[in-house]
Amino acid sequence: MSALRIVRLANFVTPASGGLRTALRELGSGYLAAGHRPVLIVPGDRETDEDTEQGRVITLPGPVLPGTGGYRVLTARRRLREVLESIGPDRLEVSDRTTLRWTGEWARRHRVPSMMVSHETADGVLRTWGVPAVAAGRTADRINLRSAWAYSRIVCTTEWSEREFLRIGARNVVRAPLGVDLTRCTPERRSEALRARYARGADVLLVLGSRLSVEKRPGIALDTLAELQARGVRAVLVVAGEGPLRAGLARRARAQRLPALFLGHVADRQEMADLQAAADICLAPGPAETFGLSALEALACGTPVVASASSALPEVIGDAGAAAADNAVAFADAVQDLLSRPETDRRTAARTRAELFGWDTSVAAFLAAHDAPALKAVAPARPEGAPR
Predict the structure, then answer these.
(1) pLDDT at residue 383 is higher than 60
(2) What are the two backbone dihedrals, phi and then psi, of residue 11, each rounded to the nearest 5 degrees?
(3) How far apart are the first and last CA of the chain?
(4) CA–CA separation, 244 vs 223, rounded Å?
């Protein structure tokens, strides 16, 4: 087999994006290393075309979506269609389940195998935006039926995210996990000096690495901090992330005199790993998360995670953290339970769990979903005990 042009489309990507941007970069780099020719097309403020470490990256002008903190979308169908036809993809990979669904139909007409990557559950996102559960489920089923028809395959990163497609009887669903940089994110990055700088004399350092938007429920992290304080636990929360809710969260922290530090988007990945390693506990309150890359990075740094029991994260973190109901009392209970374990034990368990999710395993799984074997090197086999 010769090298394949794997064209990837994604919306909702900005310089301050988190998990999706990381996944796109790592997968693209992996495809390139495997001998294929990845092309990523994303929205931006102007049209650009450059070669990068993850392959060719094309930016097409796309408007900012109001209220999202800077997210842009690819709306110029005619221009995108022209670009696709000029490239002539051998495979199409789409990381958007709504506004770009028409590209699956384009691929079908041009006999190009295609797949949609489910980075969030439709009903989960709708519920976090206030849609009643029954209505959210019905709407999600309609969206997912159209997606399952439009694309050759649907890729889900966890069993949890797969369920909403199995519920509608979709038979073209495959599973492929995401991964973590096990070299950059290591327990050896832990610095007691850095921890002391952020903790400012407190006993517990919490970190939230998340986009500050409604579906991520960052307010639960502040609720948890307030609950711990009410119990007499001296804790500090460091928030690394940007988004439309940041200003309101910061105002609330000041008004309630909560010891929370808002760093904004941390662009330096080494600096972010240092922060994750310095923390005692990572909070992951998003109820619609289908994988949770930030939480997995924290595990790789040796930091256990308290995650929403409503999300896929309990499946990912296993016994290297704790699952909690979506409220402050449950999250605070989980934090205290983790802290009651010997530090060495809980940090070793976190790292051990993360080692099941290297990016080489993820790239191999995604290439298999594309029916695109590696041409330059075969990715290592899945570590024993890794989730299937």
Answers:
(1) no
(2) -105, 175
(3) 27
(4) 18
Residues 218 and 302 in one domain: yes
- In angstroms, the CA 123 to CA 134 distance is 9
Residue 91 Cα distances to 6, 32, 33, angstroms: 5, 14, 17
CATH number assigned to the domain comprising residue 219: 3.40.50.2000
Query: Does residue 374 form part of some domain?
Result: no
Rounded CA separation 359/326 (Å): 30
The number of folded domains in the chain is 2
d(CA 60, CA 62): 6
Note whether 301 and 320 are same-domain residues. Answer: yes
Domain range enclosing 38: 5-179+358-369
The set of residues, in sequence order, having a beta carbon less than 8 Å from that of 171 and lying 6+ positions away, is none
Torsion-angle region of residue 185: left (phi > 0), alpha (psi -120 to 50) or beta?
Answer: beta
Structure letter (DSSP) for residue 319: G
Domain assignment present for residue 330? The answer is: yes
Q: Is residue 306 within 8 Å of 331, Cβ to Cβ? A: yes
Residue 376 corresponds to which amino acid? K
Q: Is residue 267 part of a domain?
A: yes
Same domain, 271 and 170: no
Asked if residue 385 has pLDDT above 80, the reply is: no
Are 115 and 207 within one domain?
no
Sorted by sequence, the CB contacts under 8 Å of residue 169 that are 6+ apart come out as: none
- Residue type at 382 in one-letter notation: R
Q: Of how many residues is the chain composed?
A: 388
User: 100-130 pLDDT, tens per residue?
Assistant: 999 999 999 999 999 999 877 777 777 777 7
**256-303: pLDDT as tens digits:** 999 999 999 998 999 999 999 999 999 999 998 888 899 999 999 999
Q: Quick one: 236 exposed, middle or buried, by C-beta within 10 A (0-12, 13-18, 19+)?
A: buried
Do both 209 and 170 map to the same domain?
no
What strands lie across the sheet with 55-61, from one edge to the other?
Answer: 48-52, 55-61, 37-44, 5-10, 91-95, 114-118, 153-156, 173-175
DSSP H or E stretch at residue 239: strand 235-240
Q: Which residues does 22 contact at the CB level (< 8 Å), separation at least 6?
A: 293
